[in-house]
């Protein structure tokens, strides 16, 4: 249907409103769901590209760790054992971020396969 309200989630899942609230807040923080205002109510929506957006958010978090590790190298002084470990960590995570970013871009269209046909069927039906 494109989205559900908190009351609809409570009814369908058979869980408490507090559980829905907590789960939605967690999923929203992870970029897995978004809220749409509908008058006084909110509808929770999971978009087609949610997994792509979630991966990109994860990469951004990873990039912050890389920047922090590199700042640690600067603070500790290059060549110290701790700085070497931090630089290795930064290079490792930087490599993973780059590889994951490329993979996500290449695979992004997979999230939409079949949706064009589905949308057309709904318009004709």
Please provide a written account of the structure.
This protein has 125 residues and is mainly α. The chain folds into 2 domains: 4-45, Winged helix-like DNA-binding domain superfamily/Winged helix DNA-binding domain (Arc Repressor Mutant, subunit A, Orthogonal Bundle), CATH 1.10.10.10; 50-112. 68% of the residues lie in helices and 10% in strands. The protein has 5 helices and 3 strands, in the order E-H-H-E-E-H-H-H. Strands 1-3-2 form a 3-stranded antiparallel beta sheet. A hairpin with a 2-residue loop joins strand 2 (34-38) and strand 3 (41-45). Helix 1 (6-13) crosses helix 2 (17-29). It is elongated. The chain starts with a strand and ends with a helix. The mean pLDDT is 89.
**Count the helices. How many?**
5
Q: Which sequence of SSEs, written as H and E, runs from N to C? A: EHHEEHHH
Contiguous low-pLDDT stretches (5 residues minimum) are: none
**Oligomeric nature of the chains:** single chain
User: Structural class, please?
Assistant: mainly alpha
* Main sheet overview: 3 strands, antiparallel
Distance between the termini: 15 Å
What is the helical fraction, as a range of percent? 55-70%
Q: How big a fraction of the residues is strand?
A: 5-15%
Q: Note the overall shape.
A: elongated
Domain module count? 2
How many strand elements? 3
